[in-house]
Every structure is written in structure tokens, then in C-alpha cells.
Amino acid sequence: MALAQADVLAGLKEIVEEVAGIPAASIEMDKNFTEDLEVDSLSMVEVVVAAEERFGVKIPDEAVTDLVTVGDAVNFIVNAAN
Amino acid sequence: MSARRVVVTGLGATTPLGGDVTTSWSALLAGTSGVRLLTEDWAQNIPVHFAARVAIEPSEQMERVEIRRLDRSEQFALIASREAWKDAGSPEMDKERLGVVIASGIGGVTTLLDQYDVLREKGPRLVSPHTVPMLMPNGPAANVGLELQAKAGVHTPVSACASGAEAIGYALDMIRNNRADVVVSGGVEAAIHELPMSAFAAMKALSTRNDDPARASRPYDLNRDGFVLGEGGGVLVLEEYEHARARGARMYCEIVGQGLTSDGYHIAAPDPEGAGVQRALKFALRDAGLTTKDIVHLNAHATSTPAGDVAEANALRAALGIDADHVAVSATKSMTGHLLGGAGAIESVFIVKTLQDRLAPPTINIEDLDPAVSVDVVRDKPRPLPSGDIAALNDSFGFGGHNVVLVFKSL
Lengths: 82, 411
Known about the structure:
The complex is a heterodimer. Chain A is mainly α. Chain A has 5 helices and no strands.
């Protein structure tokens, strides 16, 4: 199942808004989860599980540490899905 | 008596009577019941269909994202602590001299049960990563400590329904022992859920007056049939006297003593002789440097159980002797229900307001006073207290045989 980058970004924005309370409009590709979006290590687990459910991909624990920005996560999900 | 005196400089609460201290206190003086039928579907499937939920839902007082990371008990702790801290004038101070002692009887029980449902229905992967920080009984204290950056120590005494009072006593010790200058102290509970309610009902501890919930909590009434589960919390900012004076803080009253004992009698039933309660009261007065003559008011534990209310009243009569005749006894659980680990804390908040306004709150729902009750109960409407130096007691008891008595004194 191919996923477009824009669709993944839109979905991820909704997830981060739900988990961290950051308005979707202020979430961009270059935002850092920890520093810009107040997504701490526990909330990141929530983001990852919600993203896996939503996009039907697997994000292994060892990959999560490399997902520093929203763009990292979007690209990982797009590559995993395609 | 300790050289370091301790005063109360801030109050906060969220209760079945109001979302803050002022609203709760007004409703209490007006004799309002906070007990209502539960609207959840599960409530119809258990023996007791009512409880005393908080008057204002936390969702009206906090951000949504905060709510989803906090157990309901932690939400209550933060709401009450924010009010109390602001009420104390948000003291600017060395945070290494700031402590937090906030208790809970059961901790994050609804989180534990909700997440167990998630585990069973959706599997382990969807169990929230916030579960442990939400269910741990020290979570309410820890979240308040984190928010205030308290670094003198954050503690959580657990002694069932005596927990809230024990927390305030622990805070008193922290200041007296020079571990801290200011301690945010109190207790919270959020256990209105079908499992804890079924469990208390199985012990025959809860009232089953389903046809008349507002009159179900009736301490000292001949036809009382158990307690009504309540939720919420109360917080007091305790402060060393000179510290408070130096910053020009408003001082409500002084907290001058505590007495703690244990029964060694039964895991849940009160000792009918109330020997442990009597000793706790005696120790508390000795610690305070006061005598029974100085006491004009007592906010009783009186939960509306058939055995407990009389055992307590007998113990108070025995400990206070003839002086019990001039002690106005209020059973505010008749209006708030029983907040378990939050009870001793909100009742201490009420005592501070009682000393401030010189008005003992009423006890509602007494239609036929149990003749076995040998203390002077304030019924139906508030009773004025004398002018001059006065002192008041809070007593709290918990399953396990825990007895705590706190002494508050006017300034």
C-alpha cells in the first residue's frame, strides 16, 4: 500500500495533537518531537503505537530513537509502507 | 513542644460541594448534600447506585492533554494544590526547603482497572505508557512536587481513610524537624468505579439507600446504614511561622499537634472500646500543649456506618470527659460523602475555615439521633463558636486500625 508523504504528515499531525495537545497547524516536518512539541519518551510510545495502527506499518523500537523530527517519522512511515 | 511553630497559609479543595474552597465551604454551611445518583450504566448493575462525585469535573479546570496523562486522583491533587499555592501567595522561596506530602487511600485505581480492560480487549501493545505514573499511589504527590519543583522531599503516607490526616501530620513533622519551611500537604481520592464500589458493598460498608441518595449519608442517625463513597481532595499549605511572618503571609491558624496510634484489633472493624482513638487524642493534646478545656470543635470521622459512629463517639466522650459538653461536633461526611484518603484533608480544610469564621458546620440527615451517641452534635444549621483563643480537632481512622488526631488553634 503506497502512502503519500502529505497524507502521512496530515495523519501524524492529528496524532501529535491528540497525544501532546499541540495544535496541528503548528506541526511541521522540521519540528523536533522533544524540544518543539513536548513529546517526551512516554508520549512518543503513544505516537508510535497510534501511527502503527493508523498507517498499518511496524516501527521497531530500535528505529524509534532515530525519529527525532516529524519529518523523520513521516519518511520512515512512507518508506515502510511502500 | 517544638520550637518551630507551624501555621496554615493556603487552602485548596475540589469536593462534591464545589470546585474550590469558597464554594465548598458555602455549600457546607448551607447544609447541601453532594450525593447524587450515578449516571454510568454500570451503576445499575451493582448494589449501590449513587456516590458523591466532585461538583466540577477536572475537564473544566485543566487542559485536555494534562487530563489524559494524569489519573483522576492526580488531577484532583493538582487542582487543589494550584488553588492552595495561589491562596498562600505563591511564595518565592528556596525550593530545597519546599516539601509535598499528599496521600491517597487507593491511588490510581481507575487507571489500573481501565488499562486492564485495554489489555484484555486490545492486547498489551495498546496499554498506555502512562499507566504506571498514573496508577502509583505516590502519583498525586509526585505530580504536585514536580509542578512546584519541591526538593525537600515528596511523600505519600498510606493508611486507608486516615491517609489525608496522616499526610498533614507528616508535613507538620517535616517543618518542626527543620527539613522544610513550607510543605504542601493533603489527600485525594478518585475511586468511584464499579470494582471498588462492589468491594465496599461486599463488606456491607456502603449505604444502599438507592431511593434517597441525598439522605443516605447520615452520621449519628439511628437509621444509618453505611457510608457514601465520595471523591475529590483537599490541600493545606503549612508554613513555619517565622517564614510566613517574614514574607507577610496571611496566616489562617496554627497547627499545634498530632497524635497517631494503631488499634491492633481487627483489619477493618473499629475497636468498640476505642482505646486507640483515646490514646491518639491524648497524645495530640499533649503534643499541642493543650487540655480538653481548650477544644471547642471537632470535625468527626463519623462515616455513617452503624458500628463506627458510636465507637468513635464513645471514645471521644471517654477522652474528653466532661469537657465533651462544650465541643461542637460536626460530621461533614453527611454532605461530602466519604473521600477515603481525601477525607482527613478536606475535613482539615473545613476546620481551618471553621476557626476563621467561628462557625461549626452542620451535620445533615439526622432524623432520629442515635441515643448511643454521647457527644454534642451540631445539627441542621451552623453553630457560632466562642471568641478568644480556641482550638479544634480532626480525627481520622482507617481500615487497618490507624488513628490520627490533628489539633488546630486560632492565632
